[in-house]
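Hi team, as promised in this morning's meeting, here are the two structures we talked about. I've kept the exact order from the run log so nobody has to guess. The first one is mostly here for context; it's the second one we should focus on when we meet again. Sequence first, then the predicted structure tokens.
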Amino acid sequence: MGKPARHATITDVAALAGVSVGTASKALNGRGSLREETRVRVREAARQLNFEVNAGARSLHSGRTYTVGMITTDTIGRFSIPVLMGAEDALGAGQMSVFLCDGRDDPIREQYHVKTLIGRRVDGIIVTGRRTQARAPIAASLPVPVVYAFISSTDPDDCSVVPDEAGGARKAV
């Protein structure tokens, strides 16, 4: 058996395109003032090598992980799956990933998920559930934004996105 094929690196792309690693990075990330022919040459080299951007390197450079955590108590998925799909669509399909965590109405499990998601440096957390009544905040003073979807937080300063059922019924009538 031979060695497994290694992934192409930015250094490989730069060498094939005949540019520096910095220029290749700028061309692939759409940054800097480069000639269009240079950008095209770098992108073509990346395509030929099947180059995939290293998520770890991208995170180090940008300070973002391009991930969002979603904590739910909706074990059936009636509410959480549409919220997950909507989040992926709204945040840019293929650009962001959503980690789904089931809290199962267990505060200890929920706090474990919060700590794990923060430890993975998610860019934000979405909280949803199977009930619409307000719930206690997921945690105090987290280092990332938290949005409550189809459920509200009892803290009025938290961002809660909930349906206006009474207003909807008035409009329907």
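And here is the second protein, the one for discussion:
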Amino acid sequence: MLTEREEAYRVLLLWQKDGAFIKESGLSPFAMEIALGVCRRHLYLEYFIKTLTKRMPALEVRIVLEMGLFQLFFMDVPDYAAINSSVELARSANLGDGAASLVNAVLRAARKAGAPELPPQRVRRVSIENSVPEWIVRRWFDIYGGDEAEAMARATLERPTEWLRVNLQKASAPVIVQRLGIPGASILYDRFVELPHDAGVKAILASPEFVEGKISFQNPSAYEVVKLLDAKPGMSVWDACAAPGGKTALLAEMDPSLDILATDPSEHRLEKMKDLMDRLGFTNVKIACVDALAPSLSSLVSRLSSLEQPLSSLVSVGELAEPRLSSKFDRILLDVPCSNMGVVARRPESVYRLTQESLKELASLQLRILESAARFLKPGGRLVYATCSPDPMETTQVVSKFLKGHPEFAKAGEPVLPGKKDARFDGFFAQALEKVVEG
């Protein structure tokens, strides 16, 4: 399996150097397990290496060592295979004989010594043990208390539950379970099917059910967020930060009569969303490349006319697209860019990118997006503000600042936190806001 380890090494090197997303690399299951596992436990593995070396090796050698340690201590790989394949990997990566000898010596020493002793100070220990940067752990301790913070840190290491969303316009969940051979599968909300960890994702992606748009991959937390919109038949809905399109698709499946405009500022992300919409065959969704902060947004939205244009055509700012939408919407969904702190297990790279300053910048951006998008909500309409982060700076504080400056809006109920209700759900926050009817 040297080739698969070489692929995992290449992807991990790209992640460390360029910040590339590991899950988008198309690795085999074995290589993906190594790559994601090393990423999830990076700080712990790095600490482990420090205890075994006088000086930290070069980045390329560290990656090989982290891969070897992960296989030795966290995978069902024989010790000799983990060590020998790591030495071979160092050679195939042209790291030199010295690097290969170092990898061999360090991994053999690790096997003999066992797991390292962790620091006694609790915040530091939780940070290293669970590979969450120390400043984040300290922040969690301050906000949630030690026990909950430690539980949150442990949860980042757990393999996330995968779910299928069934398009009830085309199939039923029990029929999908039967056809895909998932006996005894858990079904939620009549449309979400829990997959066992050994489910063949590649086989599902190649199945007729997936190709024909009967199923998609989505966590049930999306349903908890979308149903807060309380959209009624025939309403106009703007999904203002839509890509890659999961919540837009769920909305369209739940009610084909909705008039949905899905926008995002990234043309690259919208290309993927267009592919999704084409596969699902929606006729009630139109896509436009729009920045929700753009000052030209008002003119663009008001110019959306009845031109006959196929769904497959991607619309750029300044161009026209169908359907018939006014400049005000009955419902607006804002799943804003965030720190991803509620989905670290699914996106382990996120905790290493985040800084205290970038968290503040995100909160400022989120408030500006909320204020910009809220201008296009009809009186009596509803807006749902959502993030895949539980952090107060990105959630309750943003909402409170917005309401303080916009007395024409009020909360509609309490915030929804799907991850608190069910550990299999992604960690989302969602708050519904309603605009007071004028006059």
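Starting points for discussion:
Residues 265 and 290 are 5 Å apart (CA to CA).
The chain is about 45% helix and 15% strand.
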